[in-house]
Amino acid sequence: MDKNQIRETIARRAARELHDGDVVNLGIGLPTLVTDYVPQDVHVILQTENGLINMGPTPEAGSENPDFINAGGGYITALPGASAFDSATSFAIIRGGHVNVSILGALQVDEQGNLANWIIPGKKTPGMGGAMDLLVGAQRVILAMEHKAGETKKILKKCTLPLTAAGQVNLIITEMGVMEITPEGIVLKEINPEFTVEQVQEATEATLIVDEELKKM
Questions:
Q1: Rounded Cα–Cα distance for residues 24 and 55 (Å)
Q2: Neighbouring residues of 164: CB distance < 8 A, sequence distance ≥ 6
C-alpha cells in the first residue's frame, strides 16, 4: 500500500464509527480526511476547535475560502446552519462533554489507553493545543493513525514520550486493523486482509489479544 492508500483506508474505516447525530471533532492531519468518507445516510455534526460547528467536506481545488480553515490551517467548508464562534465557546463545548467522538492522530499509544501525540523531546513544537481537552472531554476517543512511523513501532506496552492524556483512548484504527483498548489489553477486532495476524503482531510492541470473532476490516 502506498501512502495515499494507507491514509484513505484508515479514514474510510474511521468514518464507519460515526452515527447519526454525533458531534465529532477531527484532529489535525490524517483525521481531517474522515469528513470525506462519512456515509451519505449518516448525518454528523463536525466541530473544529478553532470555532466552527457543522463543518463540511474538504473544498474542491480552486474553490477554497481563506476565511474557512480548521485548527491545523487546512481549508474546510461550512454546511447550511453552521455556526462560527470564539475559542472560549469552542472549548466550552469540548470541556462540557458535548463532543460524542474525537478522532485524533498519535505518536504513541499503549495498552492502558495512554496517548502521546504532541511532542518529541528535543524538537520544536507550538504546544499541546487542544488535544488534552479533546481526549478528556470527548465521550469516545478514536485514534486514526499509521501503524508504524517508518520502522518505529507506535502501539506500545508503555508510552515513552510525554503523555497528552492517560487512559482515554477507546479504539485504534490503522491500515492493518482495528484494535480496542480493554482492561485486559489491546484486542485485535478487525484485520486488513492484506496482512496476517502475525504481521500485525510483529508491527506492534504490545501483545495483542486476537478476538475469537476476528473480522475482515
A1: 10
A2: 115, 116, 117, 118, 128, 131, 132, 135
Mean pLDDT of 47-51: 93
User: pTM of the prediction?
Assistant: 0.95
Cβ atoms of residues 38 and 16 within 8 Å: no
Neighbours of 195 (CB within 10 A): 18
Cell numbers representing residue 130 in the block = 487542544
Average pLDDT over residues 168-184: 98
CA distance linking residue 113 with residue 182, whole number of Å: 8
Partners of 171 in the β-ladder: 142, 180
Contacts of 157 (CB under 8 A, 6+ apart): 110, 111, 205, 206, 207
For the cut 80, the answer to whether the pLDDT of residue 127 exceeds it is no
User: What string of DSSP letters covers 14-61?
Assistant: HHTT--TT-EEEE-SSGGGGGGGGS-TT---EEEETTTEEEEEPPPPT
User: Rounded to whole angstroms, how far apart are CA atoms 103 and 215?
Assistant: 22
pLDDT in tens, 92-106: 999 999 999 999 999
Confirm if 68 and 75 have CB atoms less than 8 A apart. Answer: yes
- The answer to whether the CB of 173 falls within 8 A of the CB of 103 is no
Would you say 163 and 131 are in contact if contact means Cβ atoms under 8 Å apart?
no
Catalytic residues: 49
Displacement of CA 56 from its chain's centroid (Å)? 17
Position of cell 467548508?
Answer: 77
